[in-house]
Amino acid sequence: MKQASLTINVPFFDVDAMQVVWHGHYIKYIEMARSELLRTFDYDYPTMEANGHLWPIVDLRLKYVASATYGQDIRVTATLVEWEHRLKMNYEIRCVETDELLTKATSVQVAVCKNTKEMLFESPDIVFEKLGVTRS
Description:
about 35% strand; single chain; about 20% helix; two-stranded antiparallel sheet; alpha+beta
């Protein structure tokens, strides 16, 4: 499975008056990790579009376990778990210092033809090529 991680120092503008990260910013953090993961196999958003496909998010789920706080270093890890019919990724956000789990998430994206806007029911061949796997 493909995986990528990045470390973020929680900035002041992401927290509320209690110095806790506002819940919506976790989505930004997992988007950053998703882009990092896609770059590991050279299939980031510009490459997707250049190959005639758009990949909208059709499902996004987050489970908030504990709060991230101002100045805390967090590690966001994205793991590709499905790619044959959709791109499904699992995420974990953890405190760098303690390894405490802060948030778990899952996202699902489907391929859409850029020109026709029709959803594809299988991932395009380019996904398999970039991942170096064969269709099953």
